[in-house]
Structures are given as C-alpha cells and as structure tokens.
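Example (one chain per record):
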Amino acid sequence: MRETASVKKSIEIAELSDEAFELEYSIELAIENLKSMEINRLSEVDFHKNLWKLYDEEKDIIFYFRFNRLEEELQGKQLNQLETLTLVMKCWVASLLVQYHFKTVQTSFRYVLDELITTECFRMRLLEDFIEKIMLKGDRTKSSIASALLNFFNYYDNFEGAKEYLNFLSTIPSSKPKTRTIPTVKDCLKFAWVLNDFYTQSNNTDWKYTYFYPVRIWWHLTTVIPIRIGEFLLLRRDCVDNEGNRYYLYLSRIKNKKSRAKKTEVERIEISCKLYNMVKEYIELTEEYGYSKTLLSYRAYKGISLANKLNSSKIKRNPNVLTRWIFHTILNDFYDDVIATSPYNFTVRSVGEDSEQEIRQSRNNSIVFDFERRLRPNDTRHIAFLSLMIQGFHPVEIARLGGHDTVYGQRHYQQHEFFLTDSGISKLIKMFSFTGQFLKGHNSNVTPSNNISNIGKMFREKFIFSPAKTFKNEWDKLEIGNCTAIIKDCQTQCFRCGYWRIEYDEFIEKRETIEQWMLESREEALALYKTVFNLHLKLVSKVYSKVNLKLTNDLAIHSKRLKGLLENIDGFTEKYGSWLEDE
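Predicted structure:
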C-alpha cells in the first residue's frame, strides 16, 4: 500500500460543504484535521485557542484567524448562541484548511464572520440591509461572498433567517464556471466495473476483501442517495433493518439536528436487498476486530493494516469512528492496489496529479491514462444529484434526499454539463449492471490497453445489436442506412432507432453527416438539460412547499425526453463509436 499523498488544494471555495456540523463528532474531526496538516514552526494552531496563525512559507505571509471577534463585537446583543457559534466557526475552518489554500480559507472566513456580525447572526429584521449592501458590491466580490456563505450555511444553518438569506444568495450568479470536480463517465463506469468484478472474483477470506469493503458500500449507496461523506462515515452499526421483503437504511442527517422548527430530515430510506446484504456481510466480516460505534470499523482498518504491514496512520484519539481521511486512503489504495495491478493493470494518474490543467498538459504530450481522474469521497454525491434530476425527481424531494432544509443547492447542477455529454451517462444513471461486457470485451485475464474502446465485429453482433426482425434482403434502404422494422412506427430519428442498421463502407462514406447528427443530438441533450434545470429553478423560486402542477408535469415530460435521448445517444455510440475512430 502507498501512503496517501497530500491532495493539491483548491484556490476557489465550493458552494457545497463536504461536511456538516454535529457538535461531538465535528470537534473531534476538527482536531484531527488540524493535526493532519503539515504545520511549520511559525504556525500556531490549537483548536482550544481563539487565535490561529498559519504561515505560508512560499509567500512569506502569516494568515490570522481571530475567532473571539464574534463574542467581542456581538456582546450585549442578547444572543445566546455565541459560544456554540465560535465552535462551529473553528470546526468549519478546520474542515476547509485540509482542502483549500490558507488565503482562500481566510478570505471565506472573513466574509462569513463579517456578515455574522453585521446581521447579528442572520436576523430577519436585518435582511433588507444585508441585501442592499451585497448588491452594491462588484460581480466578482458578490459571487465570492455568496460562495463562502453558501458553503457555511451548508455546514450549519441554525439561524432565525437562514431560509430567507439563502433564498437571496441563491440568486447571485457564479462569476465563472467552477472547475470540474468529478471524473468522466468513462472513468466512473470503469471504476464500477472493476469494483464489481473484484468482489465477484475475490474470496472473503482474503484481507483485501474486507479492507476495501467500505468502498463497495460507499459506491452502491452514495451514487443513489446523495448523502455527504460525513453522514456516510457516521452511519451507525445497526443502520439497516428489514420488514418482510422491504429493506431500510436509518440515516441521521447531521445538518438538521439543530433545526427545531423543521422536520425535513430523511431518517429512514428504503434500499435494495443487495445493499442491505452488503452491510450485513461487512458487519459480520469485521465483528472479530471489536466494538465500533459506526458501521465502518476503524479497528478493522487498523487491524488489517498492522497484520499486512501496510502504511497506516498513528493511533486515533477515538478508535470508534473511521474518519474521512482514512476512508480517502482506502479509496486511493483501491486504485493503486486493485485497479492498477493484476489482473486489471489499468494505468492510473497518481494522487494529486489529476487536475484539469495537468490532464490537459500531459495529453498535449501524448500521455494518456486509462483512469485520468480518481474519485474523491464526495464525487458520488454530485453524481447522485445529477442522476435524480435527470430521472425527473422534484427539486424538493432531491433537497430532502440530499439533506437540505432549503433548495439553494440546486445551483451546483450547472457545474456538470460536461458530465452530461459523456458517452455512457445513461448507463451510469440507470446503475448499469457492470460486467466485462461493458468494457468492450475486456477480460480480467487479459492485460487491457488504452484502446479498450475498439469493439470487434463478432462482439458487436453478439452483445450490442438487438437481433433484426427481418432478413437482410427484406431491409428497407434509407437515404443513410437501412430500416429492419416490420411495422414502421417511427418515434425518433432513424439513427437513434434500435431498428436502424448501416454497413461499414456506407458509414465511412457518410461519416460527416453522421457526425453532424451526433453533434446535433448532444446539443439537443444540453438544451433539454438546461430546460430541466430552469424548471427546477422555477419550482423553487416562489414558495418552497408549494406544488405547481403544471411545472411539475413539464418537469416529468422534459426529464423523460432527456433520459430517452441520452439512452439513444449511448446506444448509437456503443454500436458505432469505434467506426468513428477509423481513418
């Protein structure tokens, strides 16, 4: 196993926080996060102190975080939550410091602290003053303030005017598109295929079977239900149950624990029998390692690491909880010690070397990897959100499944338009039953190469084409290609239809027209996506709980059209994609 390398930190804060505040767990996690940081001798960071100093050696700058400002400037305001808020701010900042540059965190900290003070912790009577002040800012500053506050509200929102402040903040557009934060569909599909194949071929007596099991549960749960990695790691040991032939997951939404006025958390979620059995098997496999407060066992991780002489962290303060850092280590180990080794032997970019800029740069030098970008713990949450949207779920229901008391989080769907146009998206959304078949004939006993997309003629005919209902001499010749349908009940363009066939020579001859068809189809998919997204915005722009039947019906219709179009595009790409690569 390899020691998990430090992940390169972002310079722009995301609107969605990776964590949410829960007093006991968050303080413990914050202390661990601070200890995990590489602190130089000029930095002073102690969770229990109100002044933190972080020295940037490269820029020769010290960044200060003064947490006592809150109590100093709001004394006498009859606020009874200042002590708790100071703890919240410390935990929030600690969660950001392991992800972002010091300067980015300090800037966001100042924005949030300033607004906490000027609005007296987001009181309703000061909302209009807040809006007026923010609207006077330049577009870039407005966007930066909104991103910082949205991230903070996503972490903790127990304030009198949280909903109203969020409604305003969600109207402020991002100043520029966010950097892509999730791998391509192809990388996700290959990951899922390897994961499935690994657990099909492995024996549960192999230490790797148990060691990587948290990754298996994480993938199957969080690609369907958009829960935060923090919520996943806090699942209790007895988090699943069954009633007859129905199976349930009990999930404590840590973001909603402070909200006394609302009861919107999803405490019991129906899951598949397959996922239920996975959880039960993992519990059985890890019982021998001793007590665990959470489903995922830190003691099992530590025991397996020691027994197999793996690189592992020092003893934790609380061995009853497996932290995000450790889970990320296990996830990266899966790439390095399963995906990149026999029998799969895929090439994978190293940890911390898979930014968009680095990927583009290496491709310009003709260096391409089978896995260009590794999954991060919260990537699956984004995939689940996008999947629910395309499936036609109402934004209110998506917000509830995602653990939001408000729906401002819908904004982040816009970040993933690139993901929508990747081939294979419909397979990912339908949670395709990944087998070797999907990797175009790749066999686990054969070392794959970078051109795994080449589909052999026999494989295409055997696995991809649905059998023609007529003999070849009965096919109807079209302007491009042939129609094999007995009864013509045309509901889509010919090349999107399952009855459409074309010979290789004609395909190559008319490839320019076919490529134009594909381009127009992808543009149509993007247009439908934007329509669906705009319907989401309309549905949440007025009253959160109000049901607009016409908009809801329009959402269902356009989502169905989008889903169908994506399936058509993917079907065509599977059948003929390799021909487009031929000269």
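Caption: Residues 347 and 370 are 5 Å apart (CA to CA).
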